Amino acid sequence: MAPKDPAVIDAFVGDLLERSRFIHGRHPKTRAHFAAAGENLETTMNKANVKFDLCRLRAHYRFAPGQAQVYIVRALHPIVQEFKDYIEKEGVVYAAFNQMFEQALLPQSADQAKIEGCGLLGNDQHAFDGGTQLWWWGGGGASDMAAAVPYYAIISRFCNTPGGYSAFTFPGVNERFCKVFIAWNKNLASVDSTNVIHDGEGGWLSTVALNAIVQHAGGNPGQDTFDNFYICDTSDPHYGFKSYDEFFIKELKPVYRAVVFPDDPKIVNLGCTSTICQLYENLKKTDRFWLKNTPSSLNHMLAEDGLVDTFVGGTLFQAMLASFDYRRWRSPVNGMKTRLISGLTHPNSPPTYYADFVTAISSRALIFIQADEPVGLMCFVDVGLCEVSTCGLTVKEDQVLKKGNELGMFHFGGSTHCLVFRGGVTVTPIDQDGNDLVGSKVRVGKDILIVSKQA
């Protein structure tokens, strides 16, 4: 998953690192210490003659209304400090991290300095702790990538190298990243995370953000409002959302997720608002197709499940979600849920293209559904995204499903969903408002495919 906007990502990472260094008492450019943890930033920066606009740090300090805005130097987060200590003590890990910094591409802008290996592990550990600052910052709209996968935006230049592949596949490194993500998860599901749900600049309720959400829901920002589409309480400063996660999985009003042809068994409806990417036909068990720019196979995708052979010769439908899209999954067919498999990661061997190795370990949820004929057995596959790959299932074992019933949701992120159809049926795409299905942005509940039995 190489960024489409590397220059913007460079600026995003550079700005975040400068702020993180300053928060920890280091000069934003030279990285030299000028203050210790617990000291007043404004006082010490004046003594050291360091120039920095403290307004850039407001989002990280969560000042309450009326509270004096006193910026205190912070120590590294304990999880980050332990991560740093681990890298410095483990020789092979230390070497791999230094190698990936040496192999990383230079920033496109001359204003952006290259992060050196010794810098991260010694003078600039804030490339790690910069990620923790995202707990208290909305992202500022740097780019779609930075908004959707901020940690990956920070590390993408480094992990997309041979050295990065080695460094980020050490079990100890993954264990420590897991600790970081668990802490991040807890914060995003807590009331503390509502500090980014506000109508000020950079907030999720700002005019810019709400207009983007309305547009992605199919509305006209000039005429429609957020509360036209989503269930919320506009009288509350946070619109009634108790955490960032609650805001992220916000519920559409029923009229905007209404199912087209709810009783027609040959019609398959869209389970997630998304842009349709591809239809793969005549699937082979171990043949390659591209999933999130990564070569995959039917066997890998379905976790080598015993039902894989049912789908040999079948069809795979793939669609991608955008950052502002509705994140809940809904049943595309009538039938009965037969099996659930959640929390999976792709068991692919190390891929040829290092730029895509992160997508090869994204989490998935597999929902096998025995749909009414002619569809028959199918599988609804949800694929998470990098560090935000949490797939939450709400459907139950052996639950009778109607089109539009909730199946689950992506928490914090998620990017792809697929429908896999068995062999022996023909899957025909339905044009959308005169346009080909593939390439169209389609709302949840819309009719997208016609299935018929082959003669």
TrEMBL record:
Keyword annotations for this protein, in alphabetical order, are: Decarboxylase, Lyase
Q: Name the InterPro entries on file.
A: PS_Dcarbxylase (IPR003817), PsiD-like (IPR022237)
L-tryptophan decarboxylase PsiD-like domain: residues covered: 77-211
| Gene Ontology terms, MF aspect | phosphatidylserine decarboxylase activity
Query: Which Pfam families does the entry link to?
Result: PS_Dcarbxylase, PSDC
The keyword Lyase belongs to this UniProt entry's keyword annotation: yes
Q: Tell me, which GO biological process terms does this entry list?
A: phosphatidylethanolamine biosynthetic process
Could you state one GO cellular component term attached to this entry?
mitochondrion
Identify the domain of life: Eukaryota
Q: What is this protein called?
A: L-tryptophan decarboxylase PsiD-like domain-containing protein
Which organism does this sequence originate in?
Answer: Pisolithus tinctorius Marx 270
